[in-house]
Design goal:
By secondary structure, the chain is α+β, with helices and mostly antiparallel strands. Helices cover about 35% and strands about 30% of the residues. The protein has a four-stranded antiparallel β-sheet. A hairpin with a 5-residue loop joins strand 2 and strand 3. The longest helix is centred in the first third of the chain and has 20 residues.
Length: about 100
């Protein structure tokens, strides 16, 4: 398994969609966290987006997961970036192997 950092961009034009989809988005994230797929997630302090840390086989699997998120499906995410990430220090480094 590999670790991926996913950055969501929250444009002001999609605020209404985020409000509508946030409860199901957070429920979905909690389910993914319980399955040890989402290792961490949360919004940026300035409200411009969020960072999600996924554990998956490859980038295609992460893309598939992100496409299932109610927030992305509902139009609340106006941009995203998926990057492979290699944590070498800290708690998340135990997931790399």
């Amino acid at each position: 398994m590999s670790i991926f950092a996913v950055e969501y961009v929250y444009g002001p034009e999609a605020e209404a969609e985020r409000v509508v989809h946030r409860p199901k988005h957070r429920q979905w994230l909690a389910e993914q966290a319980a399955a040890d797929v989402v290792l961490a997630s949360g919004p940026y302090a300035d409200g411009a987006g969020a960072l999600l840390i996924f554990r998956a086989e490859n980038e295609a699997a992460v893309q598939d997961l992100v496409s299932q998120d109610p927030m992305t499906r509902g139009g609340g995410v106006t941009g995203l970036k998926i990057s492979g990430w290699n944590p070498v220090i800290g708690k998340l480094s135990s997931y790399v192997g």
